[in-house]
Amino acid sequence: MTSNTAVAKLVAGVRAGSVPAIARALTLVENRDPVSAEILHALWPSVGRAWRIGITGPPGAGKSTLVATLISRFRKTGRTVGVVAVDPTSPFTGGALLGDRVRMVATAHGDEGVFIRSMASRGDLGGLSASAQEACDVLDAAGKDIVLIETVGVGQTEIEVVDAADTIVVVLHPEAGDSVQAMKAGLMEIADVYALNKADRPGADRLEQEILLSLGLRAHDETTWVPPVVRVVATTGEGVDALVEKLAEHRADLETRGRLDARRMRRIEQRIRLLVESDLRDRFFLRPEARARLDRTVLEVRSGGTTPYTAARRILDENPL
Known about the structure:
alpha/beta; 12 helices; 48% helix
């Protein structure tokens, strides 16, 4: 796909909600195809309507099962749903390890109001792949009312989801035990809503108390949103309606206090930063001539001819912005 006509046709298909067009656009975005920038540029005026909900938490918390149940709940109210599910990358094939994703897809099988895309993290830190936010843009532009973003279960490094979502759900489970204390400085700080999954198992009461204690140690006033703790059993759907209600309350709170726009402004700022950083990385290190120059510079530093600091300054001076 290289012609302007082909790009325009694909963009029109995405905006119309065409499943093949959405799938094609997402493939181009995930593969970092050069034409993907044109597609995303053309789609941008249609981006910004979807409510983006991040689903994150440690491994084994039941995030995929909870997402499948949330899909069913949202569809019962007539809302369309897009899902970007970021999986760990296989070190052998480079592909995503799907795991429970099969169950999620089965839930939405045959429903044109749901589009699910699994994406490989490709080694990116933060629980999100570099193209995950752009995939959310595609689903947003395609008219999905809600975009669910499920991140890799890697614990404290999953805080990148803050820059991708309007509402953050941190999913925990009783088996997490004392890990709440270990996560307090990272993952535990980003939640807008806590979903205590597998709440029918031993240890749920203790975990809830640990979360509430953690919340009580934070400074807050009457204007602060205090994350609620919702007990759920994703496999049966127990408590999920209450979770959906709390998500709606958080959305209303953001809108009432003018914080939704602030979150989205921050997301745009981060997107610009990432695009600039990506271009600079390509310009300075990845293009063939840049790669060859870097190799020569590394050898020069290794032989004692210069230092990394002088070398870095020289590269910047030789490539003014």
